[in-house]
Amino acid sequence: MVIYEDEESLDLFQHAISTAVKNEGGVDMASPEYDLQVVDTAGNKYGYHLWLGENGQSSVLMNTKDTHTIYTISKDYTEALIALVRQ
């Protein structure tokens, strides 16, 4: 388990999540590579599953409270997340 508390990392996660694009249609996903827990300044907790793509690919995000919907994270944010998470 890794805890990210620095502003740069938190900004990256916030932007990647907030700009993710909702995908329509059915969801049939393998087990996630990563589980994220985001805690906001009010102490609210949000859970996500993350399937991190490779460089040049998109990634997939799923809210743990809505496992019937996936969101696509852009290639640019995928590359930044790879640099952060796989370091």
Automatic annotation (TrEMBL):
Q: Name one Pfam family in it.
A: YhfM
Source organism, top-level taxon: Bacteria
Please give the InterPro entries that the UniProt record associates with this protein.
YhfM-like_dom
List residues of the YhfM-like domain.
2-85
Please identify the protein, giving its name as recorded.
YhfM-like domain-containing protein
